[in-house]
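Following up on my earlier thread - several people asked me to post the actual chain instead of describing it. Fair enough. Here it is, all 97 residues.
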Amino acid sequence: MLKTAIGRLRFIGFFEGISFLVLLLIAMPLKYWADIPEPVAVVGALHGGLFVLYILAAIWAAIQHRWSIVKLGLACVASVLPFGPFVLDRKLLKNEK
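Reply from S.P.:
Thanks for posting it. Predicted structure:
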């Protein structure tokens, strides 16, 4: 899976999507409802690093597979939507295999 650009994008996308959901559904409620801000700092930093890796992996996959700018744009938009990387994986990237 990690030997191809698509495989790397799918792998990083999975963890980026999970980190985003953990940030939104666990860390943020802890910060605002329980007054525990530490999880946001930790998960936020992890998510930020994974987000950068995801964008770089999307650009690399676009170069390797000659994606249109629209398809690359959709991959980038998917990274900022909850469940976006999972939808992208299912709809776009499975067709590339």
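The radius of gyration is 14 Å. That should answer part of your original question.
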